[in-house]
Amino acid sequence: MINIYMDDLRKLPTGFTLARTTEECLLLLRECEVGILSLDYDMGPEDYKGAEVARRIVLEGLYPREIYLHTSSAAGRKEMYELLYAARPEGSVLHHGPITAEKLMEITAGAGCV
C-alpha cells in the first residue's frame, strides 16, 4: 500500500510517493492500493486542475482509504471536496484540509516499516 502526494511544487513529505502531474497521480491510483491521497488543486499551466483527478476518482471508483486537500486555493478545495463527497463510498474518509502535523508524524513513524 502506498500514500500519494500530488503537487507540482511542494516538497514531498516522508512516507509518500510523489505525483508531480495529474496523470502520474491517476496512474498510481489505477495501479496501486492507496492508503492516503493528498491533493493539490493548481498543478501548473500545462496540467489539469486537481478537480480533474477528483472527477476521475468518482467516475472510475478510485477512492483511497483517506483523502486530504492540501491546496491553498479555497475555491479549488471546495470544488474537489464537493465532487468527492457526493460519491464517497463507505470506509473512505474525506478531509476538508491538509494532513495534520500529528498525522504526518504517525505516517513518518510507520514509513520505516513498509
Keywords:
5 strands, alpha/beta, 4 helices, Rossmann fold, 114 residues
Order of helices and strands: EEHEHEHEH
What is the CATH superfamily? Response regulator
Largest sheet: 5 strands, parallel
What is the number of independent domains? 1
Instruction: Give the CATH architecture.
Output: 3-Layer(aba) Sandwich
Shape, per Cα inertia axes:
globular
How helical, in percent, are the residues? 40-55%
How is this structure best summarized?
Residues 2-85 form the Cyclic-phosphate processing Receiver domain. With 114 residues, the protein is α/β, with parallel strands linked by helices. Helices cover 40% and strands 18% of the residues.
Walk me through the structure:
- InterPro entries: cREC_REC.
- Pfam families: cREC_REC.
- Keywords: Cell cycle, Cell division.
- Residues 2-85 form the Cyclic-phosphate processing Receiver domain.
- The chain has 114 residues and is α/β, with parallel strands linked by helices.
- The chain has a single domain, classed as Response regulator (Rossmann fold), CATH 3.40.50.
- The chain has helices at residues 22-31, 50-60, 74-87, 101-111, and strands spanning 2-6, 17-19, 34-39, 66-69, 93-94.
- A 5-stranded parallel sheet has the order 2-1-3-4-5.
- Helix 1 runs parallel beside helix 2 (50-60) and helix 2 (50-60) runs parallel beside helix 3.
- The protein is globular.
- The termini are close together.
- The model has no long low-confidence stretch (mean pLDDT 94).
